[in-house]
Every structure is written in structure tokens, then in C-alpha cells.
Design brief:
CATH topology of the largest domain: Endonuclease III, domain 1
Largest sheet: none
Structural class: mainly alpha
Strand content: under 5%
Number of domains: 2
């Protein structure tokens, strides 16, 4: 079985398990997803959603965040961890968006990576969810599961991203990543994965090794 054949099986079975694939971060504007994703580093999405609700209530526009006192932002986002760094990045991102991009979140990798604290993982989430472009978000779930399934033999997020972009159908890439996150939380957990009840065990290198 080729990797393209295997990924087709995996995608179809995950669709059956998770028919509605979506990002668990809450947002109603592209820049809010960008900020939420920055806060999500080393933090749960559930906690981020609580913090962003408070943040956007106090600073409802991008311009207000760009002009905010950094200390005030740091104090709000502290529950997400790394408060100093994330708070400074949020203010700087909003300044960059307003001054360099006319208040719009960029639609390409290079410009997204020029924003403060934004890496490929965040950039790909924006490209996939906001702009519906082919994108692979290599979070810890995707890294672990793609290795277990035998789709990759890599630990480097960027290398995994580039490999999967070649075998995952472009129109499926964003939803595939969301489904993998759910699958990693429910079944293919980091510790004690539920292998015996897993619908992917027949195509899983880890299970059959």
C-alpha cells in the first residue's frame, strides 16, 4: 500500500468519526484567530477561549490592542502561560497588522512569518482555516500520529509538513489536521493509546510492528 492509498483510507475513516471538523479556538475575525493561536502555545484551547473572551471584551478592535498598554495585556493573558512574551507579541502583531498590512491578516506564509511570535504552525492554521489554502498544522498530535501510522519517519515539524503536503489531498488538508487533533485527544493519546478499539489499527505501523 502506498502512502497516498493509506492517507485516503485514514481520511475517510476520520470523516466518519468526526464529520464536523473545525478549530476549537473561538473567533469571529481572522486577527482574533491569529491572537488565539499565539496564546495556544503550551496551553489548552479551552483556557485560551476563556482568556480571549476577556481580552476581546476589553479591547474589541485591532487598533485598541495595537495601542494598549503592554502590561495590561500581559496581565490578562498570564493564565495562558508565558504571559510576558505572549502579551508583547499580541500588541506588536496588532501594530504590524495596522501599519504594514492595512489591518488585514496576510494570506501568505512569508508575510505571516514576519509577524511577531508567529511560526509555521500558526501560519498554516491561518492559511487553512481563513484562506482555505492547502496547509498542514504540525502540532504535537499530528507529529505523534503521523509517525505511528507510518506516514512519516520524522520529528521535525517542517519536514513532516512538507511530506504530508505531498500526500494529503489539498482540499482535505485543513480538516484532516483538525480531525487528527480530535483523534489524538480521544483515541491515539500520547500515553496508553486505545489501539484495540481504533478504527485505524489495520493501517497503523505502530500497532502492527
Amino acid at each position: 500500500m502506498t502512502k497516498k492509498q493509506k492517507i485516503k483510507i485514514i481520511i475517510e475513516r476520520l470523516k466518519l468519526r468526526y464529520p464536523n471538523a473545525s478549530c476549537s479556538l473561538e473567533y469571529d475575525e481572522p486577527y482574533k484567530l491569529l491572537i488565539a493561536t499565539r496564546l495556544a502555545a503550551q496551553c489548552t484551547d479551552a483556557r485560551v477561549n476563556i482568556v480571549t473572551q476577556k481580552l476581546f471584551k476589553q479591547y474589541p478592535t485591532m487598533k485598541q490592542l495595537a495601542n494598549a498598554n503592554v502590561i495590561d495585556i500581559i496581565n490578562i493573558v498570564k493564565p495562558c502561560g508565558l504571559g510576558n512574551t505572549k502579551g508583547k507579541d499580541i500588541v506588536k502583531i496588532c501594530k504590524q497588522l495596522t501599519s504594514q498590512f492595512e489591518g488585514k491578516v496576510p494570506d501568505n506564509m512569508n508575510d505571516l512569518l514576519s509577524l511577531s511570535g508567529v511560526g509555521r504552525k500558526t501560519a498554516n492554521l491561518i492559511l487553512g482555516d481563513i484562506y482555505k489554502k492547502p496547509a498542514i498544522v504540525t502540532d504535537t498530535h499530528l507529529i505523534r500520529i503521523s509517525n505511528r501510522l507510518g506516514l512519516v519517519d520524522e520529528k521535525s515539524p517542517k519536514k513532516i509538513e512538507l511530506i504530508l503536503l505531498k500526500i494529503v489531498p489539498p482540499k482535505e488538508s485543513s480538516d484532516f489536521c483538525h480531525r487528527i487533533v480530535n483523534f489524538g485527544r480521544d483515541v491515539c493519546t500520547a500515553r496508553n493509546p486505545k489501539c484495540n478499539s481504533c478504527e485505524l489499527k489495520d493501517v497503523c505501523t505502530f500497532f502492527n510492528s
